[in-house]
């Protein structure tokens, strides 16, 4: 017997308010994505790393002190 899946909709405003513009690029922080999906940040990062082939190359990046300048 197949499990019944329930579609949960996230209010558009909640997502829009999490989008930041850095160097003319729209981005979302990992903490914001994790909050939207209801998971811990580390679990989100782990899932992306395990399934990296499913995401565009520019889906995730890490800022360091050098890149912040």
Short description:
With 69 residues, the chain is an alpha+beta fold.
Number of helices: 4
Class from helix and strand fractions: alpha+beta
Return the average pLDDT rounded to an integer. Answer: 85
* Amount of helix: 25-40%
Notable features of this structure?
globular, 69 residues, single chain, 39% helix, alpha+beta, two-stranded antiparallel ribbon
Give a written overview of the molecule:
- With 69 residues, this protein is α+β, with helices and mostly antiparallel strands.
- It has a domain at 12-57.
- 39% of the residues lie in helices and 12% in strands.
- The protein has four helices and two strands, in the order H-E-E-H-H-H.
- Helix 2 (30-37) packs across helix 3.
- The longest helix is centred in the middle third of the chain and has 10 residues, at 41-50.
- It starts with 11 loop residues before the first helix and ends with a helix.
